[in-house]
Specification:
By secondary structure, the chain is an alpha/beta fold. The chain contains nine helices and eight strands. It has helices spanning about 5-15, 35-45, 55-65, 85-90, 100-115, 135-150, 165-180, 195-200, 210, and strands at about 25-30, 50, 70-75, 95, 120, 155, 185, 205. Strands 7-6-5-4-3-2-1-8 form an eight-stranded parallel β-sheet. The chain is globular, with a radius of gyration of 17 Å. About 40% of the residues are buried.
Length: about 220
Protein backbone atom coordinates (compact mmCIF):
# COMPACT_ATOMS: atom_id res chain seq x y z
CA UNK A 1 0.00 0.00 0.00
CA UNK A 2 2.82 2.38 0.79
CA UNK A 3 3.55 4.87 3.53
CA UNK A 4 1.14 7.58 2.33
CA UNK A 5 -1.81 5.19 2.16
CA UNK A 6 -1.15 3.87 5.68
CA UNK A 7 -0.84 7.39 7.06
CA UNK A 8 -4.12 8.36 5.39
CA UNK A 9 -5.88 5.33 6.92
CA UNK A 10 -4.47 6.18 10.35
CA UNK A 11 -5.66 9.78 10.06
CA UNK A 12 -9.14 8.66 8.99
CA UNK A 13 -9.42 6.08 11.77
CA UNK A 14 -8.32 8.62 14.38
CA UNK A 15 -10.81 11.26 13.22
CA UNK A 16 -13.64 8.72 13.12
CA UNK A 17 -12.80 7.86 16.72
CA UNK A 18 -12.86 11.54 17.69
CA UNK A 19 -9.11 11.58 18.24
CA UNK A 20 -6.28 13.79 17.06
CA UNK A 21 -4.31 11.88 14.38
CA UNK A 22 -1.12 13.36 15.83
CA UNK A 23 -1.68 11.21 18.93
CA UNK A 24 -1.24 8.02 16.91
CA UNK A 25 2.36 7.11 16.09
CA UNK A 26 3.14 4.83 13.17
CA UNK A 27 5.99 2.42 13.85
CA UNK A 28 7.29 1.19 10.50
CA UNK A 29 8.42 -2.37 11.22
CA UNK A 30 11.66 -2.67 9.29
CA UNK A 31 12.82 -6.10 10.51
CA UNK A 32 14.30 -8.30 7.78
CA UNK A 33 13.86 -5.53 5.22
CA UNK A 34 16.67 -4.65 2.79
CA UNK A 35 18.43 -1.40 3.59
CA UNK A 36 17.38 0.16 0.30
CA UNK A 37 13.70 -0.24 1.19
CA UNK A 38 14.28 1.23 4.64
CA UNK A 39 16.17 4.17 3.20
CA UNK A 40 13.39 4.82 0.71
CA UNK A 41 10.95 5.25 3.62
CA UNK A 42 13.44 7.47 5.42
CA UNK A 43 13.69 9.63 2.30
CA UNK A 44 9.88 10.01 2.40
CA UNK A 45 10.34 11.68 5.77
CA UNK A 46 9.31 8.89 8.14
CA UNK A 47 11.37 8.75 11.32
CA UNK A 48 9.92 6.05 13.60
CA UNK A 49 10.87 2.43 13.01
CA UNK A 50 10.61 -0.88 14.82
CA UNK A 51 13.01 -3.81 15.01
CA UNK A 52 12.64 -7.29 16.48
CA UNK A 53 16.26 -8.11 17.22
CA UNK A 54 19.12 -6.25 18.86
CA UNK A 55 21.68 -7.67 16.44
CA UNK A 56 19.83 -6.54 13.33
CA UNK A 57 19.26 -3.07 14.74
CA UNK A 58 22.93 -2.82 15.66
CA UNK A 59 23.99 -3.49 12.09
CA UNK A 60 21.38 -1.28 10.45
CA UNK A 61 20.56 1.85 12.43
CA UNK A 62 23.71 3.67 13.58
CA UNK A 63 24.53 4.58 9.99
CA UNK A 64 21.00 5.62 9.10
CA UNK A 65 20.76 7.76 12.23
CA UNK A 66 23.89 9.65 11.24
CA UNK A 67 22.32 10.51 7.89
CA UNK A 68 18.71 11.07 8.94
CA UNK A 69 18.36 13.34 11.96
CA UNK A 70 15.52 12.68 14.36
CA UNK A 71 15.22 8.98 13.59
CA UNK A 72 13.86 6.85 16.43
CA UNK A 73 14.01 3.07 16.68
CA UNK A 74 11.82 0.97 18.98
CA UNK A 75 12.40 -2.65 19.95
CA UNK A 76 9.15 -4.54 19.40
CA UNK A 77 10.49 -8.08 19.71
CA UNK A 78 11.63 -10.12 22.72
CA UNK A 79 14.69 -8.97 24.64
CA UNK A 80 17.13 -11.35 26.27
CA UNK A 81 18.48 -10.02 29.56
CA UNK A 82 22.07 -10.47 28.38
CA UNK A 83 21.41 -8.06 25.50
CA UNK A 84 19.76 -5.41 27.63
CA UNK A 85 22.86 -3.19 27.81
CA UNK A 86 23.08 -2.98 24.03
CA UNK A 87 19.33 -2.38 23.83
CA UNK A 88 19.60 0.63 26.12
CA UNK A 89 22.15 2.15 23.75
CA UNK A 90 20.27 1.30 20.56
CA UNK A 91 16.59 1.94 21.20
CA UNK A 92 14.44 4.89 22.13
CA UNK A 93 11.72 2.58 23.47
CA UNK A 94 11.31 -1.10 24.33
CA UNK A 95 7.83 -2.57 23.83
CA UNK A 96 8.59 -6.03 25.27
CA UNK A 97 9.15 -5.66 29.01
CA UNK A 98 7.66 -9.03 29.86
CA UNK A 99 9.17 -10.48 33.06
CA UNK A 100 10.66 -9.53 36.44
CA UNK A 101 14.20 -10.62 35.53
CA UNK A 102 14.30 -8.21 32.60
CA UNK A 103 12.83 -5.42 34.74
CA UNK A 104 15.54 -5.90 37.36
CA UNK A 105 18.26 -5.98 34.70
CA UNK A 106 17.02 -2.79 33.06
CA UNK A 107 16.74 -1.06 36.43
CA UNK A 108 20.33 -1.97 37.31
CA UNK A 109 21.63 -0.78 33.95
CA UNK A 110 19.59 2.42 34.19
CA UNK A 111 21.26 3.16 37.52
CA UNK A 112 24.69 2.47 36.02
CA UNK A 113 24.22 4.49 32.83
CA UNK A 114 21.82 7.16 34.01
CA UNK A 115 19.50 6.50 31.08
CA UNK A 116 16.74 4.13 30.03
CA UNK A 117 14.48 3.90 26.98
CA UNK A 118 10.76 4.38 27.40
CA UNK A 119 9.22 1.06 28.36
CA UNK A 120 6.00 -0.71 27.43
CA UNK A 121 4.91 -3.73 29.45
CA UNK A 122 3.93 -6.62 27.20
CA UNK A 123 0.67 -8.17 28.37
CA UNK A 124 -0.26 -11.66 27.22
CA UNK A 125 -3.93 -10.80 26.84
CA UNK A 126 -4.78 -14.18 25.33
CA UNK A 127 -2.94 -16.06 28.09
CA UNK A 128 -1.21 -18.13 25.42
CA UNK A 129 1.38 -20.56 26.73
CA UNK A 130 3.72 -20.07 23.79
CA UNK A 131 3.65 -16.27 23.96
CA UNK A 132 5.67 -13.95 26.19
CA UNK A 133 4.10 -11.33 28.38
CA UNK A 134 2.63 -10.65 31.79
CA UNK A 135 -0.75 -12.28 32.39
CA UNK A 136 -3.61 -9.78 32.74
CA UNK A 137 -4.26 -10.78 36.36
CA UNK A 138 -0.60 -10.03 37.22
CA UNK A 139 -0.28 -6.79 35.26
CA UNK A 140 -1.18 -4.33 38.03
CA UNK A 141 1.35 -5.81 40.45
CA UNK A 142 4.07 -5.98 37.81
CA UNK A 143 3.54 -2.36 36.78
CA UNK A 144 3.76 -1.33 40.44
CA UNK A 145 6.99 -3.30 40.84
CA UNK A 146 8.48 -1.62 37.78
CA UNK A 147 7.59 1.79 39.17
CA UNK A 148 9.22 0.86 42.46
CA UNK A 149 12.36 0.20 40.42
CA UNK A 150 12.09 3.73 38.94
CA UNK A 151 11.65 2.32 35.45
CA UNK A 152 10.06 4.69 32.90
CA UNK A 153 6.96 2.63 32.09
CA UNK A 154 4.99 4.63 29.51
CA UNK A 155 2.42 2.11 28.41
CA UNK A 156 1.39 -1.42 27.52
CA UNK A 157 1.75 -3.64 24.46
CA UNK A 158 -0.15 -6.69 23.28
CA UNK A 159 -0.28 -9.10 20.34
CA UNK A 160 -3.75 -10.69 20.21
CA UNK A 161 -4.17 -14.38 19.36
CA UNK A 162 -4.48 -14.88 15.63
CA UNK A 163 -7.77 -16.76 15.92
CA UNK A 164 -9.62 -14.34 18.20
CA UNK A 165 -11.31 -10.97 17.70
CA UNK A 166 -8.52 -8.43 18.25
CA UNK A 167 -10.81 -5.68 19.53
CA UNK A 168 -11.53 -7.70 22.69
CA UNK A 169 -7.83 -7.77 23.47
CA UNK A 170 -7.34 -4.11 22.62
CA UNK A 171 -10.18 -3.20 24.97
CA UNK A 172 -8.67 -5.31 27.76
CA UNK A 173 -5.27 -3.67 27.31
CA UNK A 174 -6.84 -0.21 27.37
CA UNK A 175 -8.68 -1.05 30.59
CA UNK A 176 -5.49 -2.20 32.32
CA UNK A 177 -3.66 0.92 31.13
CA UNK A 178 -6.42 3.25 32.32
CA UNK A 179 -6.56 1.88 35.85
CA UNK A 180 -2.78 2.16 36.10
CA UNK A 181 -2.61 5.70 34.77
CA UNK A 182 -0.71 4.75 31.61
CA UNK A 183 -1.30 6.61 28.35
CA UNK A 184 0.73 4.52 25.91
CA UNK A 185 -1.00 1.69 24.08
CA UNK A 186 1.15 -0.21 21.58
CA UNK A 187 -1.41 -2.33 19.74
CA UNK A 188 -2.58 -2.94 16.24
CA UNK A 189 -0.74 -4.23 13.18
CA UNK A 190 -1.34 -4.24 9.44
CA UNK A 191 -4.63 -6.14 9.56
CA UNK A 192 -6.24 -4.48 12.56
CA UNK A 193 -4.65 -1.11 13.34
CA UNK A 194 -7.86 0.78 12.61
CA UNK A 195 -9.70 -1.23 15.28
CA UNK A 196 -6.82 -0.54 17.65
CA UNK A 197 -6.99 3.20 17.01
CA UNK A 198 -10.72 3.17 17.72
CA UNK A 199 -9.90 1.66 21.12
CA UNK A 200 -7.12 4.11 21.99
CA UNK A 201 -3.89 2.88 20.38
CA UNK A 202 -1.08 5.43 20.56
CA UNK A 203 1.43 3.29 18.63
CA UNK A 204 0.54 1.01 15.72
CA UNK A 205 3.02 -1.40 14.16
CA UNK A 206 2.91 -1.80 10.37
CA UNK A 207 5.55 -3.55 8.28
CA UNK A 208 4.99 -5.26 4.95
CA UNK A 209 2.12 -2.93 4.01
CA UNK A 210 4.73 -0.16 3.92
CA UNK A 211 7.86 -1.95 2.74
CA UNK A 212 6.55 -4.92 0.76
CA UNK A 213 6.97 -8.59 1.63
CA UNK A 214 9.85 -9.32 3.98
CA UNK A 215 13.09 -10.67 2.57
CA UNK A 216 14.60 -13.60 4.47
CA UNK A 217 18.05 -14.98 3.87
Amino acid sequence: MGLTDIRDRIDTAAREAGRDPADVHLIAISKVQPNERVEAVLKEGHRLFGENKVQEAESKWPGFRERYAGTQVHLVGPLQSNKARKAIDLFDAIHSLDRPKLANTLARLAQETGTCPDLFVQVNTGEEEQKAGILPRDADAFIADCRDLDLPVRGLMCIPPVDETPSLHFALLAKIAERNGLEGLSMGMSADFEEAIALGATHVRVGSAIFGARVYD
